Amino acid sequence: MSTEAAPGARPIEPAVEPTVEPEGITLELVQDDPELSSFITAADRVMEGLGYTEHGFRHANLTARIAYNVLSRAGFDEHTANLACVAGYLHDVGNMISRYAHGQTGAVLVYQSLRDRVPSADLALIVSAVANHEEDNGYAVSPVSAAVILADKSDVHRSRVRKSGQIEFDIHDRVNFAAEQSFLRVDSAAKTVSLELTIDTQISQVMEYFEIFLGRMQLCRLAAEVLDCKFKLLINGAELA
Q: Phi and psi for 181 in degrees, rounded to 5?
């Protein structure tokens, strides 16, 4: 059959495929992604080899859930909270390359993996949150970034310790093992974000917590300010910051 137009008729134009903006990403999609899962597995293997606490799927999932809850309870919309959730899940993948500057290397990995699946504005928020979550060279550059910082730094718990029988030799293991409970409480009415810890002082003194976590708590304070909140630290019921 001829596809030529009849004399005097408008020529038939070739079909043009519509441009489709990439759909939004969800925690479930990144959890099911084999490549991203391999990043987290490899990152935790490197951290284990270096003698660090757990940085695998437990930490990734917990950080994701806490980051989502922080923004939800602080009054942010579902979409923004979901971006924080995804960024929280992926924030440590850069450890598969190097512990040093792992936020920046992780941001590159996340960008390359998600660039064809996430709208550019959303991807920028996710990538910047991954890049800026560490106290050495990071800063809360957005509410999404602030939520990831607060979620990441609030995961202090004995379940992260790999070498519980040798805690006397490593202050990081000892402080984490002493933490029996940790909870990040967001009070939208009072505009506060409170990290509530229960620490067994027979295992580690409170001063040791400040010795290794002071920089992290300062970063949390600045992150809370981005959410228009005040950061508080409570250890064994006493407010310390």
A: -145, 145
Spatial CA neighbour of 230 closest among 187, 200, 183: 187
CA nearest 93: which of 133, 125, 122? 133
Q: For 85-117, how does the pLDDT look when each residue is reduced to its tens digit (9 = 90+)?
A: 999 999 999 999 999 999 999 999 999 999 999
Nearest to 76, CA basis, from 228, 182, 179, 194: 228
Residue ranges covered by each domain of the chain: 27-239
Nearest-angstrom CA–CA distance, 241 and 232: 5
Q: Fill in the amino acid letter for 139.
A: Y
CATH no., domain 27-239: 1.10.3210
Residue 216 burial class via C-beta count within 10 angstroms: exposed 0-12, middle 13-18, buried 19 and up: middle
Can you give the pTM of this predicted structure? Answer: 0.87
Element (H, E) at 98: none
181 neighbors 198 (Cβ within 8 angstroms): yes
